[in-house]
TrEMBL record:
<dbReference type="GO" id="GO:0005789">
    <property type="term" value="C:endoplasmic reticulum membrane"/>
</dbReference>
<dbReference type="GO" id="GO:0030425">
    <property type="term" value="C:dendrite"/>
</dbReference>
<feature type="compositionally biased region" description="Acidic residues">
    <location>
        <begin position="894"/>
        <end position="906"/>
    </location>
</feature>
<keyword id="KW-0812">Transmembrane</keyword>
<keyword id="KW-0130">Cell adhesion</keyword>
<keyword id="KW-0106">Calcium</keyword>
<protein>
    <recommendedName>
        <fullName>Calsyntenin-2</fullName>
    </recommendedName>
</protein>
<keyword id="KW-0256">Endoplasmic reticulum</keyword>
<dbReference type="GO" id="GO:0007156">
    <property type="term" value="P:homophilic cell adhesion via plasma membrane adhesion molecules"/>
</dbReference>
<dbReference type="Pfam" id="PF00028">
    <property type="entry name" value="Cadherin"/>
</dbReference>
<keyword id="KW-0472">Membrane</keyword>
<dbReference type="InterPro" id="IPR045588">
    <property type="entry name" value="CLSTN_C"/>
</dbReference>
<keyword id="KW-0770">Synapse</keyword>
<keyword id="KW-1003">Cell membrane</keyword>
<feature type="transmembrane region" description="Helical">
    <location>
        <begin position="804"/>
        <end position="827"/>
    </location>
</feature>
<keyword id="KW-0325">Glycoprotein</keyword>
<dbReference type="GO" id="GO:0050806">
    <property type="term" value="P:positive regulation of synaptic transmission"/>
</dbReference>
Amino acid sequence: SAATGGQSITHPVNKHKPWIETSYHGVITENMDTVLLDPPLVALDKDAPVPYAGEICAFKIYGQDVPFEAVVLNRTSGEGVLRASSSVDCEIQKEYTFIIQAYDCGAGPSGADWKKSHKAVVHIQVDDVNEFSPVFREPLYKASVIEGKIYDSILQVEAWDQDCSPQYSQICNYEIVTAGTPFAIDRNGNIRNTERLSYDKQQSYKIMVTAFDCGQKRAKEDVAVHIDVKPICKPGWQGWNKRVDYEPGTGSKQLFPKMHLETCGGPLSGVRAMVELQTNHIGKGCDRETYSEKSLQKLCGAASGSTDLLPAPSPSTNWTASLLTDSGRDSDLIYRFDGRQAANVPDHVVPQNLTDQFTVATWMKHGPSPGLRAEKETLLCNSDKTEMNRHHYSLYVHNCRLVFLLRRDFTQVDTFRPAEFHWKLEQICDKEWHYYVINVEFPAVTLFVDGVTYEPYLVTDDWPIHTSKIDTQLTVGACWQGGEVATPRFTQYFHGSLSGLTIRPGRIETQKVISCLQACKEGLDINSLESLAKDIKFHFNPAQSVLVVEGEDVDSINTAMTKVSYINSRQFPTPGLRRLHITTTVQCFGEDTCLSIPDIKAVVMVLPPSEPRITITGSNRLVRPASDLQGPLGVAPFKELHITSTVMKGDSFATCTAYLVMHNLDYCDILVIGEELNPERESLEIHHNALLGKHLDATNSTSGISIYGVDSMAHYEQALRQVRYKNWRPATLSDRRFRLTCSELNGRYTSNEFNLEVSFVLHHSAPVEHVNHMAAQSQYMRPVHHPLMIHTFNSHMSGTAPPAATVVIVVCIAALVVIVVIGVYRIHTTHQEGSREDEDEVKDPEVDWDNSALTITVNPMEALDGGVKEENREEEEDEEDEEQVGGMTSAESDNSDEDEEEEEEREEVKKRKQRGKLEWDSSSITY
């Protein structure tokens, strides 16, 4: 109002400041924007309800990097709200404190003259969300424990969580995920074992562990924990392999090159180790040369004249046909007697002249007899055939004792004589093979078992047997009871296995020969003896299947054991496993034995050898004038024979490669095909001189010739080439056919069947030979890289050859065809040159050519030489007879008989040429 009477104007006045609380507490959940404030955000103004002055227009926040804003919800009531202006993350900041002030709307619409409240403190806590999973601090945990011990804590695993709150950041629980493990884990991550662990049972464990935070959120990735079980120090051998592979032909091989004995630091005074090679499952107890008994006796230098009472069944040795044989063991001929089999030996086989000196030998495998009072088990028995039941001599087993009975015939003095000789030995009933030899030098009788001498522990006397006219019967596997019973029968049957049962009259065998006959080709060995310590002692048993090593120092014993080796000297050993057994005793000072060393069981695996393929080649057909057959020498049907042997080594199929090998044969049989020989008009024989200087013998009959003995292929070749066929009445026959086969290791490897036809013509015609397709190879051992050798692949190999091999085979055959074509062309040109010179001579109408059977083997390695003259060929004929056979010339060999026969043949050829008859001996012409 105006006192002077002028107009009075009234302006609204903003008298009061807004009012808010002095402090606020708020809570916000991370990643959300709403803040819950206590108390609520409300500003009051005493100017209300005056517009503007009594209204609240804003809340302002003061603070550095504060991610909040305050918004007025109702200007009149002054209500406001606090919210996040950007994302709030508890893991970055858990709490915020800042200042807030309220502003009124001023004096008017322009907002001028606004007033602000006092400053209030706002304290906001950020609530956590369980957004993170636990994470382990290590990617892998490792620990080791000693077996047999229970641990409180083997190791501790630890996980952590990025969440900010104690609830969600703390790890509340750990858990083993892997089922069935002998471990447990507590809340703090400590892992312990729940049972005693064994190194032998399991050497390491891998378990998976997970973790949970207190919000029960599980770790995204489990962690692996590796726990190794360490053995407590156990005395024993370490560093050896359970299996050792042995390649045939590699000589001596160390069995335990890294073996050493762990003694856990104890003071020792001595160590004794026994290594045993167990081969009782192989043939006759170990890898021996499986030749026939006769071949072995010849090899070992035994006296001749022994009688084999258990030969292989054949038409001439049929008394063993009914016996049970176990021929599946690498060609060893083993007879198995089960108490029901026995055989009578024919009278013509029985040695009749047993004197004061003779030898009985056999291989035997025998186990304990059934029952308390066992029956006698007869191996060999010579008893009365009829009327009486007297045993003249016999060999039998009774209650694990070996007894040899020998009743002498009555002579001038009728007195007691030694008659029964008893031996009591473990070997008789141990179910393993042993070689028994009984040497009789009456009245002394000595037994050899595996080459070791044993005297009888008991000798009983008896009266001599009075002479009678009763025939005796020799039996094997039981005893013949011909008298004192209603029906003659076998009694006292043998239970066990026998092989190589022989009697040699008139001679006793030397210990050297006996040892050779039973010697193993495989056994234990010690390499480089000079490197062994001086205090080492070692001892082998006779068969070298047991080795005992003794020493005072562990290091010396370790060195010695690494030298222990296995050796197999057979060229073609029996494949399969041989068991090894090592027993060890350790002595300490002042004690007998102080450490227990576990036994070792291992095996030697002998790998299959490369099998040889024995091939016989030569002329398949021989045409000779009848006059040759009637001559004093007859003809030599196998004069052009060659024997080779090849093996396939580990080369790929694509090489067409075989290797010639040198090894021995043990028999070659020439069999007459068709009618047997008629002794009145023909003979097939080999002169004794052809076998001189060789380890060979021969037997012949009307069905053929058998040459036997362990000797080289070259010696067999030389002997076979000197076999002669004669026929002094050739008009009765037109041809003869023979079949030849050879064998190594008593039939384990056999050659092809080589068939030869000998034809004889009564008029003078050109003798013609058919020649096998394969060129004979040199006897020297060397690899042959040549397409012609492709036939030496085993048939089962070639049947499964891969496509690459098929291509190579085709290429090889193509090369062969080209070589043959070149050879035929050379023959044609050479023949033309030669025919010009001989044209005038060859005009006899009696000449009869038989071209139909002519086959020519071409030597592709021969240098091309077109200037070969017919005169030179005659010289070559003479020179070729002097060519080397099996690596030595016939002049160097001791076959002087062969030279004389060939000289006579050459003289006869010259005489026929002088008579003007064309009779080429094409066997000696080489194109």
